[in-house]
Design brief:
By secondary structure, the protein is of the alpha/beta class. The chain has five helices and nine strands. The longest helix has 14 residues, at about 5-15.
Length: about 230
Amino acid sequence: MNETTDRLAGRLETSFGENLKRLPTATGELGYTVTADRLREICRLLRDQEAFRFEQLMDVCGVDYLGYGEAEWQTRDATRSGFSRGVDREPSQALTRNSQRFAVVYHLLSISRNQRLRLRVLCTDEDPPVVDSLVEIWNSANWFEREVFDLYGILFNGHPDLRRILTDYGFVGHPFRKDFPLSGNVEVRYDPEKRRVVYVPVSIEPRILVPRVIRDDARYQQAPGEAAKNA
């Protein structure tokens, strides 16, 4: 990180202490995990204090840590066991719910100081997960939080109008969750008898595709005659 970012990190850690935990980075970006009970307080200070002046909330996104760190495919052995693991997944390989599965990430911008900051807050372990809304601090959080609610099912305490924003009104589930089926739960089609669009259970059978393995040996080399013919 550069000198400006180091100074900002020093001010943050001095001001908020144990309420912020530094996130590792490989690109020099500055990020912290903030405790959920201090989220609103800290964000208000980040906006108002002269030492920070983060006037804009640029983006809010959800994270689902279900199965985080687990390797679904062992590509080195894919030619031997990839198909069997794709069809008959062992119980030990099944995705399981972890504690604090969901998180919300905020991207802040200080126009006056030309600085950026990423904050992450881990949601409660409740079902559904809950975190405080930041609409009263940054109005741009309104639609961002609605998007996170729609796609991840995370509730924002204090949001003035929390409802879906991207999916249909009758949509079931939250499509960015790791355990949401890739083919969805329902499909839409026109029913000529009812003369209207109807929702029906999805007809696509869920499956896991085996990754393609690229081989490089004599069996796959082009014969000289074929090369001349194709030319």
